[in-house]
């Protein structure tokens, strides 16, 4: 993502898991009236996220689909490994070290990484430095001791 584009928010997971945080962020995104894409490189992890979104809460789910399935353009949330944007999403969620290219068309990009994984932490640091050097509009979020998200940079 280049300077002058939308916001890029880094979410540093320390106390919660992706499966706990991602549905909450997606729900807030939909409440904002935006569509979302989740870029996940690993097909097994994509299937896990798919299951999580269908069973997010006992009384609720997050409607979504896969980019390679019919009617992808109609989905409010789309899971994909690629860079295409068939559902015209305003929000892009990048998880598990997935591809960072083609992010300029989004209002907000969320980079969610596990701070307990040294490789993921280093990748996030490298991404932050590179994007900062390009003048990107960045924010860094971490969890407080009480589990709330706090903007740290």
From TrEMBL:
Which example biological process does GO assign this protein?
Answer: positive regulation of DNA-templated DNA replication initiation
What's one GO MF term for it? DNA binding
Q: Which Gene3D superfamilies match?
A: DNA polymerase III subunit chi
Q: Which InterPro entries match?
A: DNA_pol3_chi, PolIII_chi_sf
Give one Pfam family, short name only.
DNA_pol3_chi
Protein name, please? DNA polymerase III chi subunit HolC
What residue stretch is flagged as signal peptide?
none
Q: Which organism is it from?
A: Brevundimonas subvibrioides (strain ATCC 15264 / DSM 4735 / LMG 14903 / NBRC 16000 / CB 81) (Caulobacter subvibrioides)
